[in-house]
Amino acid sequence: MSLRNNGRLSRREILKALSMCAAGSATLGPLLTGCRDGLNTPAALEQLGGVRQARLDGKPRFLIVVGAVGGASIIDSLLAVRASEAGANAAKLNTFADSQVQLVEGSPFRAVKVDSPQLGNIPVPVKTDQLPFVRKYKDSMLVATSVGTSVNHVIAQKRSLTGNNAWRGRTLQECVALQYGAGFPIPNVNMGNSGFSERGTDNTLPAHCYGEVVANPSLWPLGLDGMKGIKDLPSREVVALARSVRNSLDAQSVFGKTFDDAAALELWNEQRTSGQAALEVQDLINRLNVLPDQPPKTPLSEYGLSSSPDAEKLRAVFPNYLTDPVEGQAALAFLLLKNRVSVTVTLGPSFNMAVTPSYQVTNPPLAFDFSHNDHRSIQAFMWSRLMDTIDKLIGLLKSEPFDSSGESLWDRSLIYMATEFGRTRTREGATENFGTGHDLNNGFMLLSPMVRGNTVLGGVDPSTTLTYGFDPRTGAPEPGKMASNEADIFSGILTAMGVDTSGSGLPDASAFVRT
C-alpha cells in the first residue's frame, strides 16, 4: 500500500484497507478507527510506510557528509564506557576513568574529557572536553550503532555511503542529488578523500547526480569561469564566437564523427556548451571565493575578481582556511549551500598531516588511524577537531535564512559523520597509552533538526564495550544483535532527508525520523 505525494490514500487503497480491517487485520484497524485525524496521523503514516512521501514539501534539503577518515570510535565519544560499569573487565578494555566520562543531563549521550601530555609521539599537548558540544546539540543528535562488513579503509568508507550497495550501488549523496538537485548548478560537490570521494555504481542516474570532486576548496572557485580573471581578454562576444567555431570544427573532425554517438562525448559537449554557460552566468568565481583582495599575494581586483560577500565572515570563523583543508572545505560548503549551488557536500580530513603557519598541528598523520600509535589521545584530538568544525558550520547555517518561511538553512540540513569502522577494544593493564586496530563494531553520529534527537539507536554492552543493534522501524534496542546493518543506516538517513525510496527495497527506518 502506498501514499500519494499529498499524503492521502486513493479510493482503491481505502477500500483495500477497509477490507483488510474487516478480515481482522490487527495492524490496520487502529489506523482507520483510533484517531480523530484518521489516516493522516503520524502513527498511521508511519505504519503504512508513508513517512517519506508525507514529509516531502517540494523544497530542497541538504546533506553534509563529514568523512571521519581512519576510524572514529563511538565509544571514545558519545557512547563511552566508565570503568565502574565494566567491572572486572575494565582494565582490559577501552574504558575510561569515571571522572573522564561526563554524563549529560536528560540524555543517553556521554561526553569524554581527556588531558594527555602529547599527541601520539608528537609533542603536542591534548586537552579536550566534548561536553559543551554534546549539551549544545543533543536535541538534534542521533547515534545509530553499527556493524560493518569491511576493515579495509577505502572499501569501508564507500560502504558507509552506499549502505554496502543497499540501493543499486548509489551513494547517499547521489540519492539526495537525484531527489533535490535538478536545477542546481553543481548539486553534488565532494571534497572528501579516498573512498569517501568515490561515486556509486549506478550508471543509470542523470549526470548531475554524480559528485564533482574538489581537491583544493580555496582555489577551486577560480576555475568556474573560462574568461574572468584573465588580463587583456577579448570581449565575451569574441570568446563566444571562438568557442562556437571550435565546437563546429571538433564535430567535423575524424574523432568527432567517429564518436559522435558516444555517451561520454555527448556529456562533454553538453558541459562545455550549455553547461559552461549556465555556470558562468552564476558568477560563482566570485560568489564562492573566500580569498581576500590582498595585493600582491591575492590581487583579485587587478584581475577583475572579487571576494564573496560572506568571505570576511568566513575567514573570521575559519582563520586557517588556507592551511587546514577541513576549515577550507567547511567554508566552501557553507557558500555552496547558501548560494543554492549544491544540495549535498562532502568534506573531511585526509591521511596527511596538516600544520598551520604558527606550527600548530591541526591534523595528525593518518587522522583517526594514527590510533594504531596511541589510541586515546588521537581519538580525543580528532573528535574535538571535527566537533569544532561541525559546530562552526552549524552556527553559520543557523544564521542564514532558508526562505521567507522563518526556517534557517540548518532547519533543512543533515550532517552525517561517516567513518569506515571502529577500533579494537582491548588494552593491557589499564594503561592510558595503547594502540588499536580496525574493528567492524562501531556507531555513527547524525545531527539534524530532522532526525529523532537525543536518541541512541542500539546500545553498548559495558562488559565488552561492543555496541549492539536495534529495530530500524521502531528503534527498540536488540541486545545481542551483532549482524551487519549498513542498509538500515543508509535507509534511515534517506528517510530523514525525505528522499523517495519507492521500489528500492530498503528496510523501513522510521526510527531515525523526528515525529
Structure description:
With 515 residues, the chain is of the alpha/beta class. It contains 16 helices and 18 strands. The protein has an 8-stranded mixed β-sheet, sandwiched between helices. The protein is globular. The relative contact order is 0.19.
Give a quick set of tags describing it:
515 residues, alpha/beta, 8-stranded mixed beta sheet, 3-stranded antiparallel beta sheet, 16 helices, 18 strands, disordered N terminus
Helical coverage, percent range: 25-40%
Please state the overall shape, judged from the principal axes of the Cα atoms. Answer: globular
Taking the sheet with the most strands, its summary is:
8 strands, mixed
Mean pLDDT across every amino acid position: 90
Strand content: 5-15%
Assign the structural class, choosing from mainly alpha, mainly beta, alpha/beta, alpha+beta, or little secondary structure: alpha/beta
Main-sheet strand order equals: 7-6-8-1-11-14-5-15
How many extended strands?
A: 18
Rg (CA only): 25 Å
Uncertain segments are 1-55
Distance N to C terminus: 21 Å
Number of helices: 16
Query: What's the multimeric state?
Result: single chain
Quick structural overview:
With about 525 residues, this protein is of the alpha/beta class. Helices cover about 30% and strands about 15% of the residues. The strands form 5 sheets. It has an 8-stranded mixed β-sheet with strand order 7-6-8-1-11-14-5-15, sandwiched between helices. The protein has a 3-stranded antiparallel β-sheet with strand order 2-3-4.
